[in-house]
Input
Amino acid sequence: MKHTIENEFLKIEIIEKGAELNSIWQKKHQMEYLWSGDPSFWAKKSPVLFPIVGTLKNNEYFFEDKSYSLGRHGFAREKLFTVTKQSGERLEFTLEADSDTLVKYPFHFQFQVIYQLRYDDLDVKYVVTNAGDKEMFFSVGAHPAFRLPLANGTKYEDYYLLFETDEDTGRWPISAEGLIESSPVPVLRNPRRLEVSKELFQEDALVFKQLRSQKIELASGNTGRGIEMRFPGFPYLGIWAAKNADFICIEPWCGIADSVDADQQLINKEGINRLQPGESFTRTWTARFF
Output
Protein backbone atom coordinates (compact mmCIF):
# COMPACT_ATOMS: atom_id res chain seq x y z
CA MET A 1 0.00 0.00 0.00
CA LYS A 2 1.19 3.53 -0.84
CA HIS A 3 1.03 6.54 1.47
CA THR A 4 1.51 10.20 0.59
CA ILE A 5 2.61 13.35 2.38
CA GLU A 6 2.89 16.75 0.74
CA ASN A 7 3.25 20.48 1.19
CA GLU A 8 3.44 23.39 -1.25
CA PHE A 9 6.95 22.31 -2.35
CA LEU A 10 7.06 18.50 -2.39
CA LYS A 11 4.86 15.45 -2.74
CA ILE A 12 6.36 12.26 -1.32
CA GLU A 13 5.07 8.71 -1.74
CA ILE A 14 6.16 5.80 0.48
CA ILE A 15 5.20 2.13 0.34
CA GLU A 16 4.66 -0.10 3.38
CA LYS A 17 7.10 -2.78 2.18
CA GLY A 18 10.41 -1.68 3.62
CA ALA A 19 8.99 1.78 4.44
CA GLU A 20 10.59 2.63 1.11
CA LEU A 21 10.38 5.92 -0.75
CA ASN A 22 8.47 5.44 -4.01
CA SER A 23 8.33 8.99 -5.41
CA ILE A 24 9.81 12.43 -4.76
CA TRP A 25 7.88 15.01 -6.79
CA GLN A 26 9.15 18.60 -6.74
CA LYS A 27 6.18 20.83 -7.50
CA LYS A 28 7.88 24.03 -8.63
CA HIS A 29 9.85 22.32 -11.38
CA GLN A 30 7.23 19.59 -11.98
CA MET A 31 10.01 17.03 -11.70
CA GLU A 32 10.44 13.51 -10.31
CA TYR A 33 13.74 13.13 -8.48
CA LEU A 34 13.62 9.45 -7.49
CA TRP A 35 14.80 6.59 -9.72
CA SER A 36 12.08 4.66 -11.54
CA GLY A 37 13.02 1.22 -10.19
CA ASP A 38 13.51 -0.31 -13.65
CA PRO A 39 14.06 -4.02 -12.83
CA SER A 40 16.35 -4.53 -15.82
CA PHE A 41 18.93 -2.51 -13.85
CA TRP A 42 17.80 -2.38 -10.19
CA ALA A 43 14.23 -2.85 -8.97
CA LYS A 44 14.62 -0.95 -5.70
CA LYS A 45 14.26 2.80 -5.25
CA SER A 46 15.30 3.67 -1.70
CA PRO A 47 15.67 0.63 0.55
CA VAL A 48 16.20 1.08 4.28
CA LEU A 49 19.16 -0.93 5.59
CA PHE A 50 18.71 -2.66 8.95
CA PRO A 51 19.98 -4.43 11.06
CA ILE A 52 23.15 -4.58 8.96
CA VAL A 53 24.63 -2.46 6.20
CA GLY A 54 26.32 -4.21 3.30
CA THR A 55 27.47 -7.81 3.16
CA LEU A 56 28.52 -10.17 5.94
CA LYS A 57 31.47 -12.47 5.39
CA ASN A 58 29.89 -15.70 4.08
CA ASN A 59 26.52 -14.04 4.85
CA GLU A 60 27.03 -15.17 8.43
CA TYR A 61 27.80 -13.73 11.86
CA PHE A 62 28.31 -15.16 15.34
CA PHE A 63 26.76 -13.99 18.57
CA GLU A 64 26.97 -15.74 21.94
CA ASP A 65 28.55 -18.80 20.28
CA LYS A 66 25.70 -19.20 17.80
CA SER A 67 25.74 -18.75 14.04
CA TYR A 68 23.18 -16.56 12.25
CA SER A 69 22.62 -15.92 8.55
CA LEU A 70 21.66 -12.54 7.12
CA GLY A 71 21.61 -11.43 3.51
CA ARG A 72 23.07 -8.19 2.22
CA HIS A 73 21.68 -5.07 3.93
CA GLY A 74 19.51 -7.05 6.34
CA PHE A 75 15.79 -7.83 6.32
CA ALA A 76 13.99 -4.50 6.92
CA ARG A 77 13.77 -3.68 3.21
CA GLU A 78 11.66 -6.82 2.65
CA LYS A 79 9.37 -6.50 5.68
CA LEU A 80 5.96 -4.84 5.88
CA PHE A 81 6.04 -1.84 8.20
CA THR A 82 2.99 -0.52 10.05
CA VAL A 83 1.90 3.10 9.72
CA THR A 84 1.76 4.29 13.33
CA LYS A 85 1.27 8.06 12.85
CA GLN A 86 0.31 10.23 9.89
CA SER A 87 -0.39 13.89 9.28
CA GLY A 88 -0.25 16.08 6.18
CA GLU A 89 3.53 16.51 6.26
CA ARG A 90 4.69 13.63 8.47
CA LEU A 91 4.49 9.85 8.20
CA GLU A 92 5.81 7.33 10.73
CA PHE A 93 6.40 3.64 10.00
CA THR A 94 7.23 1.01 12.62
CA LEU A 95 8.73 -2.47 12.44
CA GLU A 96 9.06 -4.75 15.47
CA ALA A 97 10.83 -8.03 16.04
CA ASP A 98 8.81 -11.16 15.25
CA SER A 99 9.34 -14.90 15.02
CA ASP A 100 10.89 -14.51 11.56
CA THR A 101 13.40 -11.82 12.52
CA LEU A 102 14.43 -13.56 15.74
CA VAL A 103 15.69 -16.56 13.76
CA LYS A 104 18.09 -14.28 11.87
CA TYR A 105 18.71 -11.63 14.50
CA PRO A 106 18.25 -12.53 18.18
CA PHE A 107 17.19 -9.14 19.49
CA HIS A 108 13.83 -7.62 20.36
CA PHE A 109 13.70 -4.21 18.72
CA GLN A 110 11.44 -1.43 17.55
CA PHE A 111 12.56 0.29 14.36
CA GLN A 112 10.85 3.50 13.22
CA VAL A 113 11.32 5.30 9.91
CA ILE A 114 9.85 8.80 10.00
CA TYR A 115 9.38 11.02 6.94
CA GLN A 116 8.87 14.74 7.58
CA LEU A 117 8.55 17.62 5.10
CA ARG A 118 9.94 21.05 5.98
CA TYR A 119 9.56 23.55 3.12
CA ASP A 120 11.62 22.01 0.27
CA ASP A 121 13.48 19.62 2.61
CA LEU A 122 12.69 15.97 3.27
CA ASP A 123 13.88 14.69 6.67
CA VAL A 124 14.26 10.93 7.03
CA LYS A 125 14.69 9.85 10.65
CA TYR A 126 15.65 6.40 11.90
CA VAL A 127 14.83 5.52 15.51
CA VAL A 128 16.09 2.17 16.79
CA THR A 129 14.95 1.07 20.27
CA ASN A 130 16.20 -1.91 22.23
CA ALA A 131 12.96 -3.55 23.34
CA GLY A 132 14.71 -6.55 24.91
CA ASP A 133 16.55 -7.31 28.12
CA LYS A 134 20.11 -7.62 26.78
CA GLU A 135 22.56 -5.38 24.95
CA MET A 136 21.66 -5.00 21.28
CA PHE A 137 24.01 -4.65 18.29
CA PHE A 138 22.91 -3.17 14.97
CA SER A 139 23.65 -1.03 11.93
CA VAL A 140 21.29 1.21 9.98
CA GLY A 141 21.60 3.11 6.73
CA ALA A 142 19.99 4.77 3.73
CA HIS A 143 20.12 3.78 0.05
CA PRO A 144 18.12 6.37 -1.96
CA ALA A 145 18.54 6.28 -5.75
CA PHE A 146 18.11 9.57 -7.61
CA ARG A 147 17.25 9.86 -11.29
CA LEU A 148 20.15 11.06 -13.44
CA PRO A 149 20.24 13.09 -15.55
CA LEU A 150 17.70 15.25 -13.79
CA ALA A 151 16.95 17.91 -16.38
CA ASN A 152 16.04 17.52 -20.03
CA GLY A 153 18.90 18.39 -22.34
CA THR A 154 21.57 17.22 -19.89
CA LYS A 155 23.47 13.95 -19.76
CA TYR A 156 24.79 11.78 -16.94
CA GLU A 157 28.34 13.06 -17.25
CA ASP A 158 27.24 16.69 -16.87
CA TYR A 159 26.80 16.15 -13.12
CA TYR A 160 29.24 16.17 -10.24
CA LEU A 161 29.24 15.63 -6.48
CA LEU A 162 30.46 18.53 -4.36
CA PHE A 163 31.60 17.69 -0.83
CA GLU A 164 31.06 20.19 1.97
CA THR A 165 34.79 20.54 2.63
CA ASP A 166 38.12 19.33 1.28
CA GLU A 167 38.56 15.57 1.55
CA ASP A 168 41.82 13.63 1.35
CA THR A 169 40.41 10.15 1.93
CA GLY A 170 40.33 7.42 -0.68
CA ARG A 171 37.57 4.97 -1.48
CA TRP A 172 37.56 1.54 0.16
CA PRO A 173 37.28 -1.06 -2.62
CA ILE A 174 34.72 -3.86 -2.44
CA SER A 175 35.80 -7.43 -3.12
CA ALA A 176 33.97 -9.81 -5.44
CA GLU A 177 32.25 -11.20 -2.33
CA GLY A 178 30.98 -7.74 -1.33
CA LEU A 179 33.52 -7.23 1.47
CA ILE A 180 35.63 -4.17 2.24
CA GLU A 181 39.25 -4.50 1.17
CA SER A 182 42.05 -3.83 3.63
CA SER A 183 43.27 -0.46 2.29
CA PRO A 184 41.82 2.53 0.41
CA VAL A 185 42.70 3.72 -3.09
CA PRO A 186 42.69 7.32 -4.37
CA VAL A 187 39.56 8.57 -6.09
CA LEU A 188 39.28 12.34 -5.53
CA ARG A 189 41.44 14.31 -7.93
CA ASN A 190 39.85 17.50 -6.68
CA PRO A 191 39.60 17.59 -2.86
CA ARG A 192 35.93 18.70 -2.94
CA ARG A 193 34.54 17.69 -6.32
CA LEU A 194 33.91 14.25 -7.81
CA GLU A 195 32.91 14.11 -11.47
CA VAL A 196 30.09 11.66 -12.12
CA SER A 197 30.34 9.07 -14.88
CA LYS A 198 29.01 5.59 -15.45
CA GLU A 199 32.58 4.29 -15.56
CA LEU A 200 32.95 5.38 -11.92
CA PHE A 201 30.76 2.47 -10.77
CA GLN A 202 32.08 -0.35 -12.92
CA GLU A 203 33.79 -1.83 -9.85
CA ASP A 204 30.84 -1.46 -7.46
CA ALA A 205 30.21 1.35 -4.96
CA LEU A 206 32.54 4.05 -3.76
CA VAL A 207 32.79 3.59 0.00
CA PHE A 208 34.12 6.36 2.24
CA LYS A 209 34.95 6.25 5.94
CA GLN A 210 35.04 9.15 8.39
CA LEU A 211 34.55 11.98 5.91
CA ARG A 212 34.96 15.52 7.20
CA SER A 213 31.92 16.54 5.17
CA GLN A 214 28.42 16.14 6.58
CA LYS A 215 26.83 17.46 3.41
CA ILE A 216 27.14 16.64 -0.29
CA GLU A 217 25.54 18.23 -3.34
CA LEU A 218 24.65 16.65 -6.67
CA ALA A 219 24.78 19.46 -9.23
CA SER A 220 25.64 20.44 -12.79
CA GLY A 221 26.92 23.54 -14.51
CA ASN A 222 24.40 22.92 -17.29
CA THR A 223 21.24 23.12 -15.18
CA GLY A 224 20.04 24.64 -11.96
CA ARG A 225 18.49 21.33 -10.89
CA GLY A 226 20.16 19.27 -8.18
CA ILE A 227 20.03 17.69 -4.73
CA GLU A 228 21.68 18.58 -1.43
CA MET A 229 22.01 15.83 1.16
CA ARG A 230 22.96 16.46 4.80
CA PHE A 231 23.91 13.50 6.98
CA PRO A 232 25.34 14.52 10.38
CA GLY A 233 26.23 11.59 12.59
CA PHE A 234 26.63 9.07 9.77
CA PRO A 235 30.30 7.96 9.79
CA TYR A 236 30.20 6.13 6.44
CA LEU A 237 29.03 7.10 2.97
CA GLY A 238 28.39 4.97 -0.09
CA ILE A 239 27.96 6.27 -3.64
CA TRP A 240 26.71 3.72 -6.16
CA ALA A 241 24.86 3.02 -9.37
CA ALA A 242 24.08 -0.20 -11.18
CA LYS A 243 26.22 -0.63 -14.28
CA ASN A 244 25.07 1.70 -17.07
CA ALA A 245 21.89 2.70 -15.21
CA ASP A 246 20.48 6.24 -15.17
CA PHE A 247 20.60 6.86 -11.44
CA ILE A 248 22.99 7.55 -8.59
CA CYS A 249 22.67 6.47 -4.95
CA ILE A 250 23.96 8.69 -2.16
CA GLU A 251 23.96 6.49 0.95
CA PRO A 252 24.66 7.69 4.51
CA TRP A 253 25.40 4.73 6.76
CA CYS A 254 25.79 4.00 10.46
CA GLY A 255 27.51 0.72 9.70
CA ILE A 256 29.51 -0.92 6.91
CA ALA A 257 30.04 -4.28 5.21
CA ASP A 258 32.41 -6.78 6.79
CA SER A 259 36.06 -6.43 5.87
CA VAL A 260 37.87 -9.24 4.08
CA ASP A 261 39.63 -10.10 7.36
CA ALA A 262 36.58 -9.78 9.67
CA ASP A 263 36.32 -12.37 12.45
CA GLN A 264 32.50 -12.46 11.96
CA GLN A 265 31.82 -11.81 15.65
CA LEU A 266 28.92 -9.35 15.81
CA ILE A 267 30.32 -7.55 18.86
CA ASN A 268 33.60 -6.89 16.98
CA LYS A 269 32.01 -5.79 13.69
CA GLU A 270 33.32 -2.50 12.33
CA GLY A 271 30.81 0.32 12.70
CA ILE A 272 28.44 -1.68 14.89
CA ASN A 273 26.19 0.32 17.22
CA ARG A 274 25.21 -0.79 20.73
CA LEU A 275 22.08 -0.16 22.75
CA GLN A 276 21.31 -1.09 26.34
CA PRO A 277 17.78 -2.32 27.18
CA GLY A 278 15.27 0.50 26.83
CA GLU A 279 17.70 2.84 25.05
CA SER A 280 17.06 4.42 21.65
CA PHE A 281 19.34 5.53 18.81
CA THR A 282 18.31 8.32 16.41
CA ARG A 283 19.84 9.56 13.18
CA THR A 284 18.37 11.85 10.51
CA TRP A 285 19.42 12.59 6.96
CA THR A 286 17.91 15.45 5.01
CA ALA A 287 17.56 16.04 1.27
CA ARG A 288 16.76 19.33 -0.44
CA PHE A 289 15.58 19.23 -4.05
CA PHE A 290 16.22 22.26 -6.23
Helices lie at 99-104.
